[in-house]
Amino acid sequence: MHRRQLLKQSALAVAAFSFSRDLFAREAERFIPAAGFADFIKLSSNENPHGPSPLARKAMIDAVSTSNRYPWDVTTKLREKIANQYHLTKDHVIIGAGSSELLGVVSLMAALQGGKAVAPDPTFRLWMGAARKTGLPIDLVPLTSGKITDLQRMKEKMDSNTKMVYICNPNNPTGTVLPAADLENFIKQVPPFCTILLDEAYTEFSDEPSMAMMIDTHPNLVVAKTFSKIYGMAGARVGYALAHPQTIKLLNDLQPWSNAGASAVALAGAIASMEDKQFLDFCKKENQRARAVFYKALDKAGIRYIPSNTSFVYFDSSTYGKDFRQVLEAQQIVGARTFEEGTKWLRLSVGTFGEMEKVAAVIG
After folding, report:
1. 3-state secondary structure of 199
2. What pTM, to 2 d.p., does this model score?
């Protein structure tokens, strides 16, 4: 592909991604009250209610004074630190402004190959609008009856024109997880000309391992991860992806400036947060504790739900007898939303233990 054509395609991708991002922002804003926000409990975006770790907060404050300089050395330090965690090298790591940017870059790479993508439904959709606008049609495959990604049906949907297959594991919005052995077997069966985009935004909340150990033997595998969820840095905007160095180079070439999407402040926070193992353990345990409170309330209300491996819960409110969202919103609790039109399946983020106790009291 000529450089001029590549630049034109990249410009279109940036515009499309911005459009998709703005749609997401407008959707999220409808959960934010015009005034008195401090009085509301916001459970819409799977944000960590405990915020960044104490070490990350201090590091970000300290980094403000150095923000007049480009953070090349800090970016390299973060890439090395991430690589060491997975027994890789920095050449296996790409940095972005949250993992969402990198999902867009990977889908652009697939679009430039002139094929299509396959993805489960429902799943995380933010990247899809931009992907379609850059010429990547997406075949959606329904989940199983248990709301689990149907790997067999996804394989059946793939053909020689499939350039990318997307899997979010654990899946958003259902919270279901694919067993490691099943996922490994699926990755091995995907042909090398098809990119496997594996979104592991919530892996740290589960006990399932990352598939990062497969990237050297499978150059078509890209594992996207983020500091937005368990690390509590959604607003800082820093994420990363792991892949074979040859694949990383292809992805770097599609970034306007390789690895430069995250700010000096965000990078400093990410590095420090990786050191705070105690905080990560606290967040995981508190998420489980608060989630159990919600489970108990759903059981009491006779509401069916899917045991979650994440920081949110997916449940069927059709048996509740009242409008579940309205009941919560009347008590200033916002965020329950549907991902399957025509059903009453809803997703609610898990807040603090105290917040979920309030949710439990409100739903009766």
Report:
1. strand
2. 0.89
